[in-house]
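re the bet — no i am not wrong, look at it urself. input seq straight from the record:
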Amino acid sequence: MTTAPAKAGLEGITAGDTAICSVEQGALIYRGYEIHDLAEHATFEEVAFLLLEGHKPSAGELNRFKGELAAERFLPAPVIDYLYESGRMIAAGSAVPMDVLRTAVSLLGNVDPDSQDNSPEAGLRKAKKLTAKIPTVIGHMQNVIDGREIIGREDGGMPSLSHSANLLYMMTGEEPSDQAAHTMDVSLILYAEHDYNASTFTSRVISATLSDMHGAVTGAIAALKGPLHGGANEAAMEMLREIREDIGPKNEPAKIEAWMQQAFADKRKLMGFGHRVYKNGDHRAPILHALGRKIAEEKGGDLPALFELGEQVEKIMLEQKNIHPNVDFPCGMTYFAMGIPVPQYTPIFVASRITGWCAHIMEQHANNRLIRPVSRYVGPELAKWNG
């Protein structure tokens, strides 16, 4: 069987219908609400409710939802035991935080009594648990990496803190400033959902077989890990570090220009730039850049220079290649300014995108058909085995 050629990467192919998100040149919309509106006026808990329960929460619904998340932040003992063991794997270089998080989510499925139940009610319960517990996994993991006792072992942190503030607290043991908590909150909103991206599509393919939510999320984490998807924020920060090491501490325009020209000549892929849909710029990038720049200026030191370097790189890319930064580029700089270890950037992406993934998994289960495309054969002509 042969089919007409398709664009590589299925570019431009409509693979299904969704009521969750619309990704357009002019807007990014979550269930009818535009991303700039949400980033300015909503909290991450409100956006998570919107994605998971399907509508904007009332005050009472929001209080109930926040209480449900806070009550589910703790981790079962087998997962904590694994996180202690994972420290040695990370130290040995055989694992990175995204690998540890992927396995921790799989373990959470093994101890969840709802794990094999794909009903809407069980799906929503599991979605809330995963949203609550993934930040705790990240926090405990970082504590182990830092060689400290884990924070919030019994309750997963401080119930009085917001979802975003508690994530930062669990990693450091210190309550974050209002500005840091707000910046993290907005970053989680910006990353929460993005229609049929690679990891979300992975989760829908898995759930379309009627597999379970934890399995679908585990697969989505594996897809997000790659530097061409979620790992781009880590790769963008590493690229800026490399530029700084090569050109020295001063942002001399001639040296930056020379570095970029060499990268162009080498046909190097510069991470954090370009987008399959947003050819005229990523709506999310300026929002996060402004918040990150503010933190950098407040903290001082070398951080403002980092953003100045990033802005010069952006300028060269736009003027010479007509390529805009995507949200991963300012994310790398912003998380660095906040003092977050680079290997945790993509796990934090998971702490946000889990809401979008779970919404898509529940939508797939609610109106399911097995996802099974066909391929175009380009191999050898038919031949006889004994001929």
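see?? The longest helix spans residues 120-145. told u. also Residues 28-225+345-366 form a domain with the Citrate Synthase; domain 1 fold (CATH 1.10.580.10). so pay up
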